[in-house]
Design a protein that fits this description.
The chain is built from nine helices and five strands. It is of the alpha/beta class.
Length: 262
């Protein structure tokens, strides 16, 4: 599982019943960090049939993840003024440091295979959090090159790339609904033809499942992980008859870019 804090707090491998998960997400992760984390892990991952790489699609995934790096000013200039398709090598060292630390300490035997519980409320309302995230949409989608590289490598390794979106609080989603079509269209070409498990409008059984408006609590992770697991099994990648698996008939609709949405 790759992605930012939404995936990190949503998927707890200890709550899975059948499949084995490893959560390699981290707070404020971005597309480039997902790519390098996968590149660092792919050779350590014993090849088995039906392996899937789950990529959490935040609606700003194709943009610059501005809230993370202290090098925001330099990177913004490179992205927004010089229109660079990806970051310069000399700007990547803080990210590489994070990835190296992840690979060195966050192994399957440690920290419940990568799950980290959410710290909870940060004092912002659902509307404030959503409007703050929507500000990312003003940036051009310069990170798509990393997503294309990630998809190419995952497919070259014989694994299945699956996009997924984590649940959003009802108040957060009401604000987001105005920007929904525009936001999800950003990565449409990169995920074209791939399954998309969209839980953004899926409400949990209790408000206690949310740590805040867009992150799940430990209770929420225990509810969400089996749900995600069940839908992964329904896709049929763990069977030999992947292409003819009848589970694909359960896909309810097609998004405008051709990706399958469950």
């Amino acid at each position: 599982v790759f992605g930012s804090s939404h995936a990190l707090h949503a998927v707890n491998p200890e709550c899975a019943r059948t499949l084995k998960f490893w959560n390699a997400s981290f707070v404020s992760g971005d597309a480039m960090m997902d790519y390098y984390a996968y590149m660092g892990l792919r050779k350590r991952w014993p090849q088995r049939e039906g392996q899937c790489v789950l990529l959490n699609e935040d609606f700003w995934l194709g943009m610059l993840q501005t809230e993370y790096t202290i090098y925001f000013a330099q990177i913004t200039i490179l992205h927004e003024v010089m229109s660079m398709p990806y970051r310069c090598r000399w700007l990547m060292w803080p990210y590489e440091r994070v990835v190296r630390k992840l690979l060195a300490t966050n192994l399957p035997a440690v920290s419940k295979r990568g799950y980290v519980r959410s710290l909870g409320e940060n004092g912002k309302t659902a509307q404030e959090r959503c409007l703050g995230h929507i500000k990312f949409l003003k940036h051009r989608p310069t990170e798509l090159a990393w997503l294309e590289k990630l998809r190419a490598q995952v497919e070259a390794d014989g694994r299945h790339l699956i996009f997924f979106r984590t649940p959003l609080d009802d108040d957060y989603r009401k604000v987001f609904e105005t920007f929904r079509e525009r936001a999800w269209a950003i990565c449409s070409k990169v995920r074209a033809g791939l399954p998309v498990l969209d839980y953004s409008a899926t409400l949990p059984p209790s408000e206690r499942c949310f740590a805040d408006a867009d992150h799940l609590s430990p209770e929420g992770a225990c509810w969400f992980t089996p749900l995600l697991e069940s839908d992964l099994l329904a896709l049929g990648f763990q069977t030999k008859e992947v292409q003819t698996c009848p589970a694909f008939s359960k896909i309810q609709d097609k998004s405008v870019d051709g990706s399958a949405t469950l």
